Request: fold
Amino acid sequence: MALSEAQSVGAEPGRPERSGVELSGAEIVVQALADEGVEFVFGYPGGAVLHIYDAVFRQESVKHILVRHEQGASHAADGYARATGKCGVCLVTSGPGATNAVTGIATAYMDSIPMVILTGQVPTPVIGSDAFQEVDTVGITRPCVKHNFLVKDVRDLAVTIRKAFYIATSGRPGPVVVDIPKDVTDPNIKIPYDYPRDVKMRSYNPVLKGHPGQIRKAVDLILEAKRPVFYTGGGVVLGEASGQLTDLVRATGFPVTSTLMGLGAYPMTDPQFIGMLGMHGTYEANMAMHETDVLIAIGARFDDRVTGKIEHFCPHAKIIHVDVDPSSISKNVKVHVPIVGQVANVLADMLKLYRELAPRSEEQPVSDWWAKIAEWRGVDCLQYDRSSAAIKPQFAVETLYKVTGGDLYLTSDVGQHQMFAAQFYPFDKPRRWINSGGLGTMGFGLPAAMGVQLAFPDAQVACISGEASILMCIQELATCLQYGLPVKVILLNNGYMGMVRQWQEFFYESRYSNSYVDALPDFVKLAESFGHVGMRVDRPADLEAAMTEAFAMKNRLVFMDVIVDPTENVYPMIAAGKGHHEMHLAPSLSDRELA
Amino acid sequence: MRHIIAVLLENEAGALSRVAGLFSARGYNIESLTVAPTDDPTLSRMTLVTTGNDDVVEQIKKQLNKLIDTVKLLDLSEGPHIEREMMMIKVRAERQDREEIKRLTEIFRAKIIDVTDTSYVIELTGASKKLDAFIGAVPEGLIVEVVRSGPTGISRGEKGLTV
Ligand SMILES: Cc1cc2nc3c(=O)[nH]c(=O)nc-3n(C[C@H](O)[C@H](O)[C@H](O)COP(=O)(O)OP(=O)(O)OC[C@H]3O[C@@H](n4cnc5c(N)ncnc54)[C@H](O)[C@@H]3O)c2cc1C
Ligand SMILES: Cc1ncc(C[n+]2csc(CCOP(=O)(O)OP(=O)(O)O)c2C)c(N)n1
Ligand SMILES: [Mg+2]
Reply:
C-alpha cells in the first residue's frame, strides 16, 4: 500500500476482518495486525507480552520473526519498511526489551521510517511502583518517536493500534510506540472486536497538496534559472515520487544531486545525475551547489552533513523547498519559496505547469551551466589507486556492482564502507539503498538486511559492513539461519574503525586513540559456527570470482571477509565548518584542491 | 522578542510532558507555562511565554503544531490581546509597615486576603509588568514569599481560539 493511499483508505481491504467477535486484548493485538495487512512482526518474548505471544501462537496470518536482540527487531522492521514502503512492526517485552529496542526506534525516527512498535508494560495497577521490568517506556521513547501511546483500557486497544498505523504511515512518516500493560491483554477478559477502518483526528491532518500560488512561484523561478540544481532527498523515496521526480528533471534538463537518503530516487547512472552532495559528495555536486542560482530542494532537510557551514551554503541561490513537514522548511536555511505538501503531488503539479509555460526549443537548456559542470566532472574526484596490491574498498564496491548487475538491495552499517558504497554503487531505483543516515547507527546493516530479505525472498540482498559495525548485531546471524535468509555480508575489513581513524588522521595528527579494532574474531569460522558459509579474500584478483561464487549460493548466507587497505580514506571530504567549495580531494588530486 | 502563545491540546495524559520535553530537547527558552482544562473537557488550554528571534519563534510554533496532540495554536503577540497573571505575595507587616503596605495595595488595586499580627498575604491580578512593579514597590526586606501563576492570555475582539 502506498503511503499516500494509507491516509484515506484505512485498513487494507480484502483481509478477513473478524468484526463483532469477542476477543481478549492479546487476541485484539494480533487480529488488529492482521487487519492492517501486517506480514511480519519482529520480536522477542518476555513476561509482559506472554499473553500476546500466546495469541501469536494460535493464528497463522501474522508471521512472527524471532530475533536475537531487540535492537535487531527494530532494525529488521525498519529495513522491511524501507524496502517495501509498508509499515514495519515490532513486538518486545517491557523494561530491557523496550530499552534494547530504543536504538532502532531512534534510528527510524531520524530517517522518518514508518514503524509501529508494540511494547509490553507492567500491569496498570503496579505502574509507577518500580515493579519488575518496569521502565517508563512512553517517557524514554517520547523524544525519538513521532507519537506514542499507553493503552490503559482494553476497549481502547483496537482504535489505538489503528491510530498508530495511521500516524506512522501518513504525513512525514515515523515510528509510533504503543505501550500495552499486561492486564490489558488478559486472556480472560473478552470484549466485542471491531477494527475501525478509518480514523479521524482533529489534531492531526497532514497536508497533501501544495499551494498553487507557491507552485507557480517555483515554476517561474525554474523558468528563469541559469544555473539550477535539483537537490533531492529521502522524502522522494518516502513519498513514492521517484517517477514524478524523474519526469520533472528530464523535462527541465537540469542537473540533479541527491542526499545519502535519496540515492536511487533518480537513476544514478543517468547523465543528468551529478552524484551525491555533502560531506562526502562529489566535487561536481558540491561545486554546483556553491554556484547555483536556483536550488530546487525536494524532500530533503538541509542536514548539516549536507550544508556544511551555513554561511557558505548556496551563496548565490534562490531556494525552493518542497516538504510535507512545515518544520523542515527554513529550519536550518531560510528558503524563498516554501511548498508544503506530498512530494508526488507537488512534483506532478509543477511538471504540469512547467509544460504549459516552458518555451518549446530544441537546444539543451542551460548549456553553459552544463559546460561548467563537465569541467568539474573532469576532475574525476572519485579516482583511487587501481593498481594497488591490497584490495581498495572502492574496488570492492565496484566489483559488487559488476557481480550483481546493479540489481541488488544493499543495506549498510556506518563508517567508511557506507560512504564508499554510496559513492561507487549507482542505484537506479529507490528503496534499494538502505542505510542509517540521520542517527548513523552501527549495527543497523545486518538486521535491516533480514527485513529486506523476508520482504523479497527471491531478491539479491547484501549487507556492506565494517569489522567494527558488524559485531554490534552479529547475533542476528542466528536469526538468518533460522529463517533461511540468504543475505550476503560483504565485510570491508580494514582492521580499524576507519571513519574514526580518518578523522583522527586529519584532525588529531594521526593519534589513533581507540580506533584500532584489536582481537578480532576469525570471521570465516564465526560465520561457519552460526551455520553459514564463510569466505576470506585478500587479493584484488580473486575478488570477482569469489563474489560471483557467493552470489551463486542462492540459498545460503555467505559472509565475505574482504581484507581491504587499512589506510584508505573517503574523498572528497568537507571538514566540519567548511563550505561546499572547500573540499579536501584525494591526495592524487591535491594540487587541484580548492579549485 | 517575547511571545505569548496559546495552544489547544487534546486533554490526554502526557500532553504537557510532550510540550515541556520539546522545549528542553530543542533548547528553546520557556519563561512560563500554564495549563488547565477548558469548558470542553476533552481539551486543555496552555499558555506559554517564550523569547527568541523571529526564526526561532517560527520553529517553536511549527514544532508545537507538529505535536500530534496539538489541535490549534495562536501566537497572541501577533494581534491585540489581553494578558493576565495572578500573584499571591506574603509580606512581613509590622508597625508602620502595615499602613505602608495597605496603601500600596490600594494603589495597585490589590487585595489583602490573609492577615496575621505580623504578615499579610496580598492577591494581585494584572499584566506581568504590573506584578513586577508591585514587587518592586514593596519596601526592601519585607517579602517573605511570592507565587505567580504565569501569564494567560486571550485575543481581543469577537473571534475565539476554539475548535
Ligand atoms: C558517516 C556518515 C556520513 C554522511 N555523509 C553524508 C553526505 O556526505 N551527504 C549526505 O547527503 N548525507 C550524509 N549523511 C547522512 C546525513 O546525516 C543525513 O541523514 C542526510 O543528509 C539526510 O538526508 P535528507 O535531507 O534526504 O533527509 P531525510 O532524513 O531523508 O528526510 C526526508 C525529508 O523529506 C521530508 N518528507 C518525507 N516524506 C515526504 C513526502 N512524502 N513528501 C514531501 N516531503 C517528505 C521529511 O519531512 C524530511 O524533511 C551521512 C551520514 C553518515 C552516518
Ligand atoms: C553505535 C555507534 N557507535 C559509535 C559510532 C561512531 N562511529 C562512526 S563510524 C565508526 C567506525 C566504524 O568502523 P567499521 O564498522 O569498521 O567501518 P569502517 O569505517 O572501517 O568502514 C564509529 C565508531 C556510531 N556511528 N554508531
Ligand atoms: Mg573498519
